[in-house]
Amino acid sequence: MSLPACGGGSGGRARMETDLGQGRPGVAATLRALNEALGRPAALWVKETGARNLRHRDFLAPRAALSAAFPGGQVPDDVVAGVTSLGGPGVLAVRGCQESPAGLAVQLRRPEAFRRLLASPPGPVPAAAAAAAPAAAGCVVLHCPALRGPGALRPRHLRPLLLADLLAQLLRAQGVGVRLVPALPEGSSREVVRQLRVDWPEGRGGSDLPGAVSALERALGRCPCAASCGRGPGGAIAEVRLKSFVQQQGLAGYDPNLDVLLVTEEKLRCLAELQEAVQECMATGQGSHCSIVHVVSCEEEFQQQQLDLLWRILDPGAHTAWQKHLVCGPVKVTNPSSPIEAAQYLQLRRRQMYEASVMKYGELAQDEAWTEVIDALTVAAIRFEMLSTAHRSQITLDLEDSSISTKGTKSGAFVMYNCARLATLFDTYQRAVEQGTYPPPPPASELNFSCLREEGEWLLLFNYLLPFPEVLQQAAQLSAPTQGIRITANTEIVCKFLIQLSMDFSSYYNRVHVLGEPFPHLFDQMFARLRLLGAVRDVFHSALATLHLPPLSQI
């Protein structure tokens, strides 16, 4: 299929030259500059995301907001001129600014935006976004009590485990030191965690742990709100009056039903392991303090609040006051013949993924080379089931065979499928270069980005490539209320971002022939598209890495 030639040629490239020393452009920096140009303290501008609105504008100051900020809603001409001449580090250049029924509309210099994002090496994160990053938090201990249970892991345990694993990856990417607690115990749970590609420590020093437990036991003996009970039920060595401590300290956010806790050596051991992790965190010198985040299921929240208070009582240091609880909503399983273990759930999803692959690809999917592909698709399916919903909300796992697919647009498998399509595209191009069908790509600085005129091309750059660093920063942020012990996270936006990217990429890829006929007048457009999709591929790989999912070269 022949594609129309791009106008401009080398002359077009000359007109496109721009200063690439302004740093990587970002959404936050551009929005801040737009708001400053209007000279009003309120944030008036919004970024457009929908394809229909992006045909006409990229940012909008809505009419209602303008009416509240300017007399009669009329923006002075000199203010509009200031918007048009925006510039600065991280700020996207404006092509035009005009009044519309919807408000004040801005369209960017799109070829220049393509060039700044695609023709230069990766630059630093825009300063405005970096200021909001959680790196200032220093170091964080992520505690997952689900791994302490004596029995086998169940699906409800996987949710906080996978959430903690993802949060650790996101925080580390922002320069935050992370320690994971507890160490994985021996047994079948360890194998399930490995199969899910969770990066969790399997052994922690422990030589000083008995001494730390003894120190906590001595502190317990000196505690005014504790009373010895000999060797009570379940090996209890003391009872502690939690409610009176909460009242004395004026602590907010704890369950009002907390009363007397029977303290066992196992509970003290849990606290000793947390203390050890805090000491390791502080020893790295990453920040002036260490935060502790208990990532728990709603079923475990009460017990973890008990341990939280016990630690505050026995170790009244600053770090115990920085404890927060990240609580996951319930995991409901439909159609279970009996309570299902995590290992059974994993095996079920793997069998379903294998059968769905055989149905789609036939005998090819039964080849041994597909074992790793099926394993990766299975982990992707489970991670997206568990992590694409806000952690506070309930999720429902449907165990029926019809619930799993290799191509459902909301699934992890769909994301992996589109990542593999990009790998196939670049493999095909490389083979064609080796065969002499296409020339090798020119340097990025020589590409003609005015060729990128398709609606889907701007959508990919403006909604995904441009905001991606800020998406990762937002996902790593932990929002705490002014009072209380609960915090919230936005980790679900990683899966949602990948799903939406996959849908928009798939729509574009199904509509556009990237590797056209080998005519020289079409090469400018082909090279610009390959550069764009190479950047899309990099975003796929980086986002999947936060989920410990390998990019696949075939599906």
What attributes does this structure have?
alpha/beta; four-stranded parallel sheet; disordered N terminus
- Please tell me the overall pLDDT: 86
Low-confidence stretches: 1-21, 122-136
Give the class from helix and strand content and strand pairing: alpha/beta
Biggest sheet record: 4 strands, antiparallel
Q: What would the principal axes of the Cα set say about the shape?
A: globular
CA distance, first residue to last residue? 26 Å
Helix tally?
A: 21
Tally of strands:
15
Rg for CA atoms: 27 Å
Taken as a percent bin, the fraction of beta residues is 5-15%
Task: Strand order, main sheet: write it out.
Answer: 1-2-4-3
Portion in helices:
40-55%
How would you describe the overall organization of this protein?
With 555 residues, the protein is of the alpha/beta class. Helices cover 48% and strands 12% of the residues. The chain is built from 21 helices and 15 strands. It has helices spanning 9-16, 27-38, 51-54, 63-69, 77-84, 110-118, 127-131, 155-173, 188-195, 209-222, 242-249, 265-283, 301-314, 318-321, 342-361, 371-387, 412-434, 455-465, 468-476, 492-511, 520-546; strands at 46-47, 59-62, 94-100, 103-108, 139-143, 177-181, 226-228, 236-241, 260-264, 290-297, 323-328, 331-334, 395-398, 478-479, 488-489. The strands form five sheets. A four-stranded antiparallel β-sheet has the order 1-2-4-3. A four-stranded parallel β-sheet has the order 6-5-10-11. A three-stranded antiparallel β-sheet has the order 7-8-9. Strand 5, helix 8 (155-173) and strand 6 form a beta-alpha-beta unit. It is globular. The model is unreliable at 1-21 and 122-136 (pLDDT under 50).
